[in-house]
Input
Amino acid sequence: NAGVMQNPRHLVRRRGQEARLRCSPMKGHSHVYWYRQLPEEGLKFMVYLQKENIIDESGMPKERFSAEFPKEGPSILRIQQVVRGDSAAYFCASSPLDRGYEQYFGPGTRLTVT
Amino acid sequence: GNSVTQMEGPVTLSEEAFLTINCTYTATGYPSLFWYVQYPGEGLQLLLKATKADDKGSNKGFEATYRKETTSFHLEKGSVQVSDSAVYFCALDRGATGTASKLTFGTGTRLQVTL
Output
């Protein structure tokens, strides 16, 4: 059973460009979470999604950031018009329907904005 | 709101030394508590968990006991190895078993084990 997969592992964008981060949950998992880790800090919750639904986006910046989890395909975290402060590691996690507290993390995407 | 406080690192130990990483929390209700480990260049791995007071989570020689009276969940290991070198994160969730939840993490404690 493959774990949570994220791609790309490393992404470099210039200021003003768009960044798209992808996450494929573990097989059988219906919940996806996105977290951001700034240098030397812990992970901060951004958004929680089920298929075709955003359940909780209380940690997501109001502008430039969006997330989706379509019926088919991976979950996407999209950052428009990136700025240097967006440089961070973005982690995706997934959990089974009946054990939402048990989250399995992907290897992360390290975004660098130049 | 919920919060997690961990001891600052880095923690440097010799192989076979005893490890304690302190973690205290603030939360409403009855959260579940977790320790995650992050090896260099990798994502977080669940190390152990405890879902109610006085529960002891254990895995790979690590253990932590959920102490509601002191709101603590300290991580311990009797004899560390070089391969234990990593960053350790304490975390909690809302504790509503069976429902999805967002985890609240501490800032992490870096452990360096030397020969």
Q: What stands out?
A: Residues 4 and 53 of chain B are 16 Å apart (CA to CA).
